């Protein structure tokens, strides 16, 4: 099962559209994750129409219309692997312990907000993933997104993709 992870798209404020390279990944993904800060509903509509399965939440920059359509936290079980999705996890320091306590029944936590790619594992075994942002690199050298594979109840082939400058 192929996964595509993107967050913090901030359209149309940070970019006019999702990058073509990212859009080209959609037909190959069995599940797409988006952890908020969409800003516009058009991006949600686009992903809902093109994705086989979308697991998504709202973020701190999302208004009432997006909050009415999306939860603050989402859960999915994929081939026995338990995922939780949330926009914000707080400061980097202490993140693993804080998230392991907040999501004790999850195997993988996907989150956004910082625009900083993140891939760590808490002492409890919780894997924390943040793909950065495909449209707003902020203090990072590149805009980014993640792909991964779920097979036999395990997460594999987690790959950070760097997008060319716009």
TrEMBL record:
GO terms of molecular function: hydrolase activity; metal ion binding
Keyword match Metal-binding: yes
Domain Calcineurin-like phosphoesterase: 1-150
Keywords of the record: Metal-binding
Protein name: Phosphoesterase
Family to which the UniProt record says this protein belongs: Belongs to the metallophosphoesterase superfamily. YfcE family.
Cofactors that this protein relies on: a divalent metal cation
Enzyme Commission number(s): 3.1.4.-
InterPro entries membership: Calcineurin-like_PHP_lpxH (IPR024654), Metallo-depent_PP-like (IPR029052), Phosphodiesterase_MJ0936/Vps29 (IPR000979)
Pfam families found in the cross-reference section: Metallophos_2 (PF12850)
Keyword Metal-binding recorded: yes
NCBIfam families from the UniProt entry: yfcE (TIGR00040)
């Amino acid at each position: 099962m192929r996964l595509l992870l993107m967050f913090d798209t901030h359209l149309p404020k940070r970019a006019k559209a999702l990058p073509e390279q990212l859009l080209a990944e959609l037909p190959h993904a069995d599940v797409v994750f988006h952890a908020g800060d969409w800003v516009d509903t058009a991006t949600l509509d686009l992903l809902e129409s093109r994705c086989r399965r979308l697991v998504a939440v709202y973020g701190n920059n999302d208004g009432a219309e997006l909050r009415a359509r999306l939860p603050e936290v989402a859960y999915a079980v994929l081939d026995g692997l338990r995922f939780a999705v949330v926009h914000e996890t707080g400061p980097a320091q202490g993140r693993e312990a804080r998230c392991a306590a907040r999501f004790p029944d999850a195997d993988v936590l996907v989150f956004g907000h910082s625009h900083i790619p993140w891939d760590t594992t808490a002492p409890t075994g919780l894997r924390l993933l943040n793909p950065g942002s495909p449209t707003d690199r902020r203090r990072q050298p590149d805009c980014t997104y993640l792909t991964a594979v779920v097979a036999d109840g395990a997460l594999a082939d987690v790959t950070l993709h760097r997008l060319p400058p716009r």
